[in-house]
Specification:
The chain has 372 residues and is α/β, with parallel strands linked by helices. 34% of the residues lie in helices and 24% in strands. The protein has an eight-stranded mixed β-sheet with strand order 9-10-8-11-7-12-13-16, sandwiched between helices. The structure holds adenosine-5'-triphosphate. InterPro entries: FSCA_dom_sf, MIP18-like, Mrp-like_CS, Mrp/NBP35_ATP-bd, NUBPL-like, P-loop_NTPase, YlxH/NBP35.
Length: 372
């Protein structure tokens, strides 16, 4: 997956042993050994310390430490010459659009469209938490609120008062919230003004918002589409260089029927569907811990199976998700170590791993010796 030429400075016998150990370590999201995934780009021995360079094509920095620990233990056990491992980990994400005919957005490597067939299923909630989870895993992220008839992202990110300015008379600044950039039609228009727009006008304005915002070197731009599978969604998917789409649904039959339309819409325009998120999937009674399925069960899984796309995750119906949103601090930042944040981060890693790319962003150095 990495385009970097590997720099291996070990003698042949040690090199083959080390590569075998590294390839026996499966990346949980790419489902490949580290060597087969093209992630090993540097190997050198200094005394009994192995210097290891790893390149990730998707953000997962919360897993780095455990990965390095597991690799270190395996290498130390298998190779007498190695007593410790010093790992340097890069994140490289490359520019990619599913439709080669659409030029890339300046400063944006990949665009993830988040869609739902039906309104109110939690599409914006998912978009915001997905964007924040990608950022928490080490990526530079922006979010575009394209939900023209109900722009809720300014409120969800606690930046309702932001008003864009245009330093060059051509582009608009974005809001910064919890470490991500955000742009919304809600920063510019009142709800009443946007609600009366007809499809073509709305779609045109949204394409303008995508292209004329001052994005700052984004790895991912998450686009929160309006609900439905009509003209706006179609125009956006044909005019914006989308890399992949995520479909949000609840387990209810009516939502599922609409979600299926969403999957087929993207498949028709050759945009890969990265998977389905089932929101409000279950309810855990805070008193007795009983798990209930108020909207039915396994609907998202059925859609995923029918269309051959991954099931990305299931979020509970949980009052804290709504309360955190209403306060402008989504669960991923309000309770970063909580169970909800963990589900969103897993979802983010699955989405990003599904997109597969490269370009150096961050460098993290972790050194673990065998006496830890
Ligand atoms: N898993 C959840 N548990 C509890 N409340 C949730 C959950 N997901 C979303 N909500 C709440 O449900 C409401 C609708 O969510 P959201 O605005 O994300 O839906 P949407 O699909 O984007 O809606 P629209 O179609 O209007 O754009 C919000 O008040 C949100 O806080």
């Amino acid at each position: 997956m990495s385009s970097v030429t590997p720099d291996f400075r070990l003698d042949e016998a040690l090199l083959s042993k080390v590569l075998a150990v590294l390839n026996a370590h499966q990346d949980p999201y790419l489902k490949q050994g580290l060597v087969d995934a093209g992630m090993v780009n540097k190997l050198a021995l200094e005394g009994n310390r192995l210097q290891l360079g790893l390149v990730y094509p998707y953000p997962c920095q919360s897993l780095y430490r455990d990965t390095v620990m597991a690799i270190t233990n395996a290498l130390v056990a298998a190779c007498d010459q190695i007593a410790e491992v010093e790992a340097e980990i890069d994140l490289q994400i490359s520019t990619y659009s599913a439709l080669a005919s659409i030029p890339p957005i300046p400063n944006v490597k990949q665009v993830i469209a988040v869609a739902s067939g039906k309104g109110g299923v939690g599409k914006s909630t998912t978009s915001v938490n997905l964007a924040l989870a990608l950022a928490a895993e080490g990526a530079n992220v922006g979010i575009l609120d394209a939900d023209i008839y109900g722009p809720s992202i300014p409120m969800m990110l606690g930046v309702e008062d932001f008003r864009p300015v245009s330093p060059d008379g051509k582009h608009m600044t974005c809001a910064n919230a919890h470490g991500i950039s955000a742009q919304s039609i809600g920063f510019i228009l009142t709800d009443d003004q946007a609600a009366v727009w007809r499809g073509p006008m709305a779609a045109g304005t949204l394409v303008q918002l995508v292209n004329e915002s001052l994005w700052q070197d984004l790895d991912y731009l998450v686009v929160d589409l309006p609900p439905g599978t009509g003209d706006i969604q179609l125009t956006l998917s044909q005019k914006v260089p989308v890399s992949g789409a995520v479909i949000v649904t609840t387990p209810q039959d009516v939502a599922l029927a609409d979600a299926q339309k969403g999957v087929t819409m993207f498949q028709k325009v050759n945009i890969p569907v990265l998977g389905v998120v089932e929101n409000m999937s279950f309810y855990l009674c805070p008193e007795c811990g009983h798990k209930d399925h108020p909207f039915g069960s396994h609907g998202g899984q059925r859609i995923a199976e029918r269309y051959g796309v991954p099931m990305l995750g299931a979020l509970p119906l949980n009052i804290q998700i709504r309360e955190n949103m209403d306060k402008g601090t989504p669960s991923v930042v309000a309770e970063p170590d909580g169970e909800i944040a963990a589900i969103y981060r897993d979802l983010a890693r699955k989405v990003a791993a599904g997109l597969a790319q490269q370009q150096t962003q961050t460098k993290v150095s972790i050194a673990i010796s065998d006496d830890e």
